[in-house]
Fold Large-conductance mechanosensitive channel.
Amino acid sequence: MSFISEFKAFAVRGNVVDMAVGIIIGAAFGKIVSSFVGDVIMPPLGLLIGGVDFSDLAVVLKDAGESTPAVMLKYGAFIQAVIDFTIIAFAVFLGVKLVNRLRKQEAQAPSEPAAPTKEEQLLTEIRDLLKEQRSS
């Protein structure tokens, strides 16, 4: 098997395609969550704690020089990342919980009884014929 055909077999395998779709959707979901946190959650939270914008919180370790930028410890960006992570983790938790609940309901749902085998059908016919003969 040549390298190209081997790669093609790998690339079109279902798991690889599913993983690629998951990564693309995950990236898009990450943008949505980042916007939700940055544009919806953080402004009221900042207002509650006195109008502080977390992304601007930093400690200057060394002032900027003529040709060098300032060295800053941007702990506000870290706080923002922790809040983003917490919200994303909670959303994933809710999604997994929902999927597990649906799987549990599916497993508990009564399945259709199996169709009778040919032997069972023949035995049922014999039983019914014997009942008819006795009643006649």
